[in-house]
Amino acid sequence: MELDYQAIGLRIRRLRKARGLTQQSLAEISNQEPSNISHIERGATKLSLPTLVNIANALHVTADELLCDSLPAADAVYHREAARILSDCTHSELKIITETMRALRESLRDAGQAE
């Protein structure tokens, strides 16, 4: 399986913004050039393992959280992410989200059987 550099970049961007960091501040914390952070977030460049580790440390996440789109064994990352998303939902929001997830799962499984 190839690494999905766009997905990695998107995860880095989301985490950076969630922590209130600019590209400049993430670059400083992770010992990168700001232009490199921009290229990484757009998926326009392949990042090295040391760069990945520096960025993960700067964002206070594990590498699997950045790589989970390319790691079939990283389901726990998605479970944690879903739990974080749901953690501050109201009862009615939880009901709607649960119904939507159930319908989506059934649709995905039906589509898989049709192939």
What are the key terms here?
115 residues; mainly alpha; 7 helices
Overall description:
The chain is mostly helical and 115 residues long. The protein is 70% helix and 0% strand. It has 7 helices and no strands. The chain has helices spanning 5-18, 23-29, 34-41, 49-59, 63-67, 75-86, 91-114. Helix 2 crosses helix 3. The chain is globular, with a radius of gyration of 17 Å. The model has no long low-confidence stretch (mean pLDDT 93).
Tally of DSSP β-strands: 0
- In N-to-C order, the SSE pattern is HHHHHHH
- N-end to C-end Cα span: 21 Å
Large-scale geometry: globular
Oligomer: single chain
Largest sheet: none
Q: Please identify the structural class as seen in this structure.
A: mainly alpha
The chain-level mean pLDDT equals 93
Strand content: under 5%
Q: Show unreliable segments.
A: none
Rounded to an integer in angstroms, the radius of gyration calculated over CA atoms is 17 Å
* Total helical elements: 7
What is the helical fraction, as a range of percent? Answer: over 70%
